[in-house]
Amino acid sequence: MAWVAGTILTCNLITNPTHTNNTTPNTQIKTITQNILSTIKQDKDIQGGNIKKLAELVDAKILPSFDFTRMTQLALAVNWRRATPEQQKALTQEFRTLLVRTYSTALSSYRDQVIEFKPLRARPEDTEVTVRSEVKQKGAQPVTIDYDMEKTAAGWKVFDVKVGGVSLITTYKDDFANQVRDTGVDGLIKTLASKNRQSDARGKTDKT
User: Domain 2-207 is in which class?
Assistant: First the structure.
């Protein structure tokens, strides 16, 4: 699906391992985006498709800016409350791993996209904001990217991304609901774990 590629690409460009609670969300994303783009352009291993190095980059620099617990909770909707604490922990871990694998694959496709950020429309007291941006590439229509962020004790965190108005969380919500209906919460955990193992296997095959 086209929205997946756009979501993955720009999600990968959000990271803030050194942010402070005083950093505004749009400044946070814009500054780190520039740093990540620079890293990708200069790293020959990443440009050559080193999946392991991509995964390490995602895990170390991108994921700290995401609230995976809230993302998983939103994606599960009512089924989150029906899951045990152990199941919730497993779901969050598998969802996180799934996104790491997906993001790593998408990073390898980055070339010369340009990202422009819109002025932030928010009040100083707001604890949830939307950072809006637009991805431009020669020969293609611009793609709008909206980042829903929340202010936490650890700083601003992303809890949803909308590409062309389509929510990443909403898309997973439909898939998760269908899976839980058919096989239960444990079935969903097993499905996510299986997808992650398949991704690991493909990564090992690609390197041989």
Answer: alpha beta
